[in-house]
Structures are given as structure tokens and as C-alpha cells.
Amino acid sequence: EVQLVESGGGLVQPGGSLRLSCAFSGETFDDYAIGWFRQASGKEREGVFSISKDGGATWYADSVSGRFRISIDNAKNTVNLQMNSLKPEDTAIYYCALAYYRGKRYFDYGDRRSYDYWGRGTQVTVSS
């Protein structure tokens, strides 16, 4: 069983920055990826940014290009999402998730259906 816990959310003004962290624990015995997703009120959960265990592969949504960046610290089992130049439309609950590659006929870094374990989320609100 894998557990994921998000932190770092909060209220920020437009143009501001936040750094989200995802701490994961448990038996991560196989190769995996960690993804950040978000869900705004009344909308479906969407992919934001993902990274492979070795950091060699990343994926991100067009809407965050040039503003967000992701990093993984395998020694601390932590994935960080640095969010800059935040906009009101970035307001959502942000979730991190872990996906194992093995056994999947279909794998997409940005598709929530590829992910096996989820955290409970952290609220990000961008407002003046």
C-alpha cells in the first residue's frame, strides 16, 4: 500500500507563487511516476504535471507551461510542484498520485486513469 500526502496549498494573490509538496511512503517496489492533478469546482480532475521516478520523463499541461515546474527527491520520497505567476483559473484542489507502469496496456502521464494511488488533496486559491 502506498500513501501520499500533499502540503503547501493556500491563498495567494494573482501573480504570486506557491510550492506544493507530495510526500509518499509505503512499498514503492516497482518503477513508477508521480503526477499532480487538480480539480476545480464543478469540473473534472485534470492533469497538471507528472514526472517519472528517475526524473527522466516529464509531462505537463499546456496551461501551466513556463509557469510551473516539477522536481523529485528520491532520497526524501518527495515530489515538489513550484507554481509561479499564478492565475485565478489555477484555483482548485491539487492532488498528487502514483502510477505503476507494469501491467498497464495503456499509460498516459496526464490521464488520471493511469494512476493507482491518490492523496487527499490540498486547496489552492488564487484571488485578490
In short:
With 128 residues, the chain is an all-beta fold. The chain contains no helices and eleven strands.
What does it look like?
The protein has no helices and 11 strands. The chain has 128 residues and is mainly β. Strands 2, 4, 5, 6, 9, 10 and 11 form a 7-stranded mixed beta sheet that branches. A hairpin with a 5-residue loop joins strand 5 (46-52) and strand 6. It is globular and about 45 Å long. The N and C termini lie far apart (40 Å).
Write the layout of secondary structure elements.
Elements: E1 2-7, E2 10-12, E3 18-26, E4 32-39, E5 46-52, E6 58-60, E7 68-73, E8 78-83, E9 92-100, E10 117-118, E11 122-126
Keywords:
11 strands, 128 residues, seven-stranded mixed sheet, single chain, globular, four-stranded antiparallel sheet, mainly beta
Poorly predicted parts:
none
DSSP strand tally:
11
* Radius of gyration over all CA atoms, rounded: 14 Å
Query: What structural class do helix, strand and pairing data support?
Result: mainly beta
The biggest sheet, with number of strands, parallel, antiparallel or mixed sense and barrel status, is: 7 strands, mixed
User: Which overall shape is indicated by the principal axes computed on the Cα atoms?
Assistant: globular
Number of helices: 0
Distance between the termini: 40 Å
- Please report which band the strand proportion falls in: under 5%, 5-15%, 15-25%, 25-35%, 35-45% or over 45%: over 45%
- H and E string: EEEEEEEEEEE
